[in-house]
Amino acid sequence: MDYIPEFLYNLLLEQYGNDLTNTIINGYSQKRYATLRANSLKNSIENIKNIFDSMGISYKDVSWYKDALIIKNVSEKQIKNLEIYKNGEIYLQSLSSMIPPIILSPKENENILDMAAAPGGKTTQMLALSNNTSFITACEKNKIRAERLKYNIQKQGANRVNVMITDSRKLDDFFSFDKILLDAPCSGSGTLNIYNKNLEKTFTEELINRSVKTQFELLEKAISLLKPGHEMIYSTCSIFFKENEQNIQKFLDMKKIEIVPIDTSIFSDALLLPVSIKGTLCICPSDLYEGFFVAKLKKL
């Protein structure tokens, strides 16, 4: 396994066994199709399809999301040259990262917190899903990333978003929200590329351990800010138990939350990895999907 860090291979082997480890590593080697969503705040999916048809751009529908498309014959770079991209009528986004807002299901007039919002794909998607009627507080602690977030929000026409340049762990407890999206910083173990020659340097055990600590603190804060009886999403682009179920289990044991089971049958075109908490979702990396974990939690 000279092309993948030995500790990574061992971690995968320990959690998933030989066959699934090989499937995951194969997923790491795939070149993913460009995927995007029509930004319904600015244009309809029907119009976008008509534009693509007229340009000879071939696409495939996504069964669980009417506004999403898999692009078959052009690259992300080519899409970025299109006027509809420059105008914010479409947004390039991985299929996996479209899933948390879909499962959160934002509704009219809900007050929603996006705890680690940059670059803004999920933030603007949540507003589009609520037909521009929810109100979103989007936190980003890094100033440069926060500028990118503001740029994307403006470009997408998402005008009911308030950006806070702050670490959401430091939010005052007098805040309270109807719904929370915590797409937590993680090791990125679901998105690795085995052709990355720096993988040995950038993907480390220290990164995983640091991520776990941050995730726990963010989850603790999220639960304190969520209204009792209301729901939140915890998601990562990691496929490791330590960053996912282990974090959630601590709060289940404390009787602070309960799991709201996700109907995983919706995502029939994704290969799902086994999970240790029933009702959560873990997607295997492939040519369509990044490796991704999602859990829906209800505050008790």
Number of helices: 10
Reported CATH architecture of the largest domain: 3-Layer(aba) Sandwich
The end-to-end distance, rounded to whole angstroms, is 45 Å
**Which sequence of SSEs, written as H and E, runs from N to C?**
HEHEEHHEHEHEHEEHHEHEEE
Task: Using brief descriptors, characterize the structure shown.
Rossmann fold, eight-stranded mixed sheet, Alpha-Beta Plaits, alpha/beta, 12 strands, 21% strand, 300 residues, 2 domains, globular
Task: Write a structural description.
The protein is of the alpha/beta class and about 300 residues long. It folds into two domains: about 5-30 and about 95-300, Vaccinia Virus protein VP39 (Rossmann fold, 3-Layer(aba) Sandwich); about 35-90, Alpha-Beta Plaits (2-Layer Sandwich). Helices cover about 35% and strands about 20% of the residues. Strands 5, 6, 7, 8, 9, 10, 11 and 12 form an eight-stranded mixed β-sheet that branches. Strands 2-3-1-4 form a four-stranded antiparallel β-sheet. The longest helix has 23 residues, at about 5-30. It starts with 5 loop residues before the first helix and ends with a strand.
